[in-house]
What we know:
Blueprint (H helix, E strand, L loop, with lengths): L26 E6 L2 E2 L12 E2 H13 L3 E2 L13 E8 L2 H13 L4 E5 L12 H10 L12 H10 L6 H13 L2 H8 L4 H8 L14 E5 L11 H18 L7 E3 L10 H10 L4 E6 L8 E6 L3 H5 L7 H6 L1
Parallel strand pairs: 1-5, 1-10, 2-3, 4-5, 5-6, 6-7, 8-9, 9-10
The structure holds zinc ion.
The site of zinc ion has 5 residues, from strand 5.
Amino acid sequence: MDFVDLPDTPGTLHDAMGNQTDMPARKIIIMYHSVSSAACPGVTGSVPIPMARFARQIEQLHDAGFRFGKISQLDQTVDRDTVYITSDDGTIDWALNALPWCEAHGIPTYTSIITGPWRVPAIYPVAHQLQIMLAAGLTSLPMPGLTTEQRDYIDRIYAYETHPVRRRLKGACNLILSDTEARGLLGEPDPAMRHLLSRRFAPAEAYADLTLAEFGPHTVSHRAFDGYVDDYLAREITPCVAALREAGLGTSRCFALPMRPRYPATTEQLADALEHAGFRFVMEGLGFWDGRSRIVPRIDAATLETNLGLAPWKEPAAASAA
Ligand SMILES: [Zn+2]
């Protein structure tokens, strides 16, 4: 099946409540991370979407009349509801499971890549090191000293993390500590950790033969923007763009922010500088995009069915028992 060959008659569109709508065409940007299959399981500690669910989401979007757009054409007018498939980080599971499937089905994709893992010596994102450590067990993990205020803040932002160790550690590394402090807390990766990290990210060659896939920068190290605009551009964004170009991947005029900016920095500060550097959009946060703003929120793939009124995903075991 080639999802690009849509009939000219518009499909029936539904809002998030499942009601038919004649709203003007929307642009909806979907955010993926890991996608797992039996051949290539989700990377350690990730919360992957099963490949079967990914394919089912694309099929449902197609059947609901959505077109599949290219991020490089995000600012062009559309006459039908259009979805844009994006993914952050460039893990091996996304590259080996989702990208070839999309390519075979005529679906454009956009992957925001962390280029630190391609360096010699490699720079691995601390958030991924933490994911692996949390997956290995919750005993004997380092614990940062936090003030009551910091703990309250973490408990609010990461309320969905029910285990206090997971919540505190994620919160400390992602919200409170600087990248250097977080690396210091977690410690130098041991050989087993380095091995896992070295196999976690797709090498540039994994993207070589794709024609519908587009790529963009997601920083070198995945550290949060700290308010130092020139430094962040010089150390994290410009070299990331250069590494993508060197790999022959070209880059879009989009930048996907790796984490929420560290308080009190704001995305707006960075967006001004990025605009001067030739960027058009900054992807950040969750939600529906208004189709105009330069800061572009995305719909998390795990909530796609709910947000777009699609049939809910059932795990295969549950489905066959029904
Ligand atoms: Zn990321």
